[in-house]
Write the structure tokens for this entry.
Amino acid sequence: MALDLWNKLRTPPKEALSEIQAGRLKGKSDINPTWRYQALTDIFGPCGFGWKFAITRQWTEQGQDGQLMCFVNVDLFVKDGDKWSDPIPGTGGDFLVKKERDGLYHNDEAYAMALTDALGKAMKPLGMAADVYWSRAPETKYSRESGPVPPAQATKSEAEPVCEKCGKAIPKARATISQRNNDGKILCTTCGK
């Protein structure tokens, strides 16, 4: 019963996901925020009646080379019967001014993007899109077919891949993309196969 809400929110439909094309998160999945809002509305009711949020702080931070970041703190509330939850906090941020190849770019949607990010962070403890964040290995991108591996089902071979040639464990920290062969198999740090 305790995981009922989590299980309702954990798996977004494929059409709510898109692959991130650039940056540090390249290859990972981006979750459509409208799906998140629809999922909360489906379970709790319309925003303002069954779920709501309050912006508790907005601020900027100076970055390097003229860049400027903006941040938003929110408290998310969900309703259970007639009772509102305690606040569920979330912090999000984005570039208000970002250095790009052609100079500084000013983003007039930065605070809206930071708010969306903050709401997504606040929804995570409820289980929102948990399958996207909890994958089998850091280098594995989300897929509905493979799904997450709950802690009770994880095995040592999933935690540390074993070399098929020499039988030695390959630490996950070393199992980077650059240490894979053309078939995608992890190369052994001991024998290189």
